[in-house]
Amino acid sequence: MFDFKEIEAFVWIVRLGSFRLAAQHLYLTQPSISDRIARLEDFVGGPLLDRAQRQIQPTPKGRQFYRHAQHMLETRQEAMAMLEANNPFQGVLRLGVVETIAHSWLPAFIAELANRFPDMTLQLEVDGTPGLANRLLNRQIDMAFTLGPVDAQDILNRPLCHYPTGLIVNPCLAFDPDTFSLAALERSGTPLITFASDSRPYRELQSLLHQQRLERIKLHCSGSVWTIVRLALDGIGVGAIPPRIVEQEIARGELVTLPCDLPRLDFAASWPQHIDKALADGVIDLAIELGQRDQREHA
């Protein structure tokens, strides 16, 4: 007979593709993991894992069993959560966020999160969407607030909020908002500066310049939003980012906005299916509440 230890070992080997990584995740030795799988395969009467490949894959029988094994673990988790419903959540939540959120409503979110989950410890990662998506898929973070959903197996997504993209510039460059156009920017030789080259905003802006035959505009990029802001403040170029991030600089007259019809940025919360449902719902409901409030207040 086998129990949940064997099932848990099997599920995590399939998820991570490695006996070693599964052992690390479950805080076990690799021989212990191997013994659990041997007992499970003994019981079912055949191999459940194909060990011939570099990344461990389930056999046909293993794929069929994996669906049921996941369901069994989730049902057990729900039952345990019901029994422990009166206990506050304790532990570390590894949360990844993009800079636009980090520099807008994240402080309010963290403050309210502490009120609702006083025994939770937050481990925060700030990065671009590609980096956070990669960390999420590699189980290095538990949840991510990124630009657009993370489209991958076993990842759930919910929309958070959205902000318009705008052009920001130091007034010293003397662009008149009433007469500004991208063609005028091209004639001036002033570069545009936007998000990293592997980001959706960069690709969309590049496509827009191509469609309008404005390829002579230099399109600089940076993985750091505040580097873009710094370059715009120093008059190096025109930043293409959400003006929400630089409202204070605009209010002080250090930056001005220029008219341009650019795609808006849609943000989403993403998390793996194995995360406790009650916890995920509580955290993400709060994020949606605060994100959409910020969106309305700064529209």
UniProtKB/TrEMBL annotation:
PROSITE patterns the record matches: HTH_LYSR (PS50931)
InterPro entries: LysR_HTH_N, LysR_subst-bd, WH-like_DNA-bd_sf, WH_DNA-bd_sf
GO MF assignments: DNA-binding transcription factor activity; transcription cis-regulatory region binding
Keyword Cell membrane assigned: no
Gene3D superfamilies tied to this protein: Periplasmic binding protein-like II (3.40.190.10), Winged helix-like DNA-binding domain superfamily/Winged helix DNA-binding domain (1.10.10.10)
Entry-linked CDD domains: PBP2_LTTR_substrate (cd05466)
Name by which UniProt lists this protein: LysR family transcriptional regulator
Origin species: Salinicola corii
Organism classification: Bacteria, Pseudomonadati, Pseudomonadota, Gammaproteobacteria, Oceanospirillales
